[in-house]
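User: My collaborator sent over this chain with a note saying "see what the structure looks like." That's all I know about it. Can you take a look?
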Amino acid sequence: MLKRLVLIALLLLSVRTEARDYTDVYYDPVESGWGVFLVQSDTTQFLAFFIYGPDGKPTWYVAILADDGTGNYTGSLFATTGTYFASPWQGDNVTAAGTVSFTPSDAYHATLTYTVNGVGTVTKTVQRQTLTAYAMGGNYSGSMAGAINSCTDPTQNDPAFRARYGLAVTQVADTSATLTFTLVDQLHNGIVCTLSGPLTHLGRLYHLDGQLACTGPGQTGMPYPATIDQLHRTGQGIEGHLKAAVSGCLASLHFAAVFNVNN
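Assistant: Without extra context I'll predict from the sequence alone. Here is the result:
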C-alpha cells in the first residue's frame, strides 16, 4: 500500500493522447517567411498557407483535412482568388488544386506534404511557431484522471485513478516553472508534490523536464525524473501531461485546473 501511494502521488500529470489539438502557426525555422495557419475542430483541420508563387508574390491556398484513423490528417488543397480589398466584394473563386497531408511526429513537430496540380509535391518538416510567453503563474483548483498500468506487481495497477488538488504555479518567463500540487481528496489528503524544471516553449505549448518530489502520508520526499508534455494555458486555467515509468509501472494521468480568480 505504501509503495502504491508513493507512485500515485508521484504521477500527477498526464494527458489524453486521443484529444491532441494541433491548432497553431507552423513553419520551418530555417525558412522563416512562409508558414501555415492550422485550426483544428475535433478531428477536422483547416489550413491556410502563406506561401509564394513563381513570381515571388503571395499565393493563397487553403485545405480541409480529416483524421485518417491513424492520427495523421489528409485532405484536399484549394486555390482561392477574390475581389481587390479596396473594392466592393464581388465574390470569390475557389478551385480544387491538389492534396495535403499533415503527419505529426510529436505534439510539436510534423511533416507537411502538399501536391499542387501541374506543379509538383512539396514536403516540409514544420514545427509550432512561438510568439510570446504565456503567463501561467497563479493558484488553481482541479482534478486528475487516468491509469497506472503494466506494473511488475499487478496489485499496483490502477486503471481508474482519480484525485482532486489545489495547484500553485510559479514561472520564470520562458525559462523554468514550479508546480506544487496539494491533494485534497479523501484518499490522498495531505500529500504535497512539487515538480520543478526548465521550460521549452513551442507555439501554444510548453515542455518541461524536471524533478518531482512528494511529502506527506506515506511519502519519502525522494525526487524522481518527470517529463511534462503539452503544458498549456486554457481559457479558464491550465492543463498538461506527464510520461513516467516508476517502480515497475507505467502511468498516464491527465490533469486540468481552473484559475482561482480571488487568489
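A starting point for your reply to your collaborator: Residues 1-17 have pLDDT under 50 and may be disordered.
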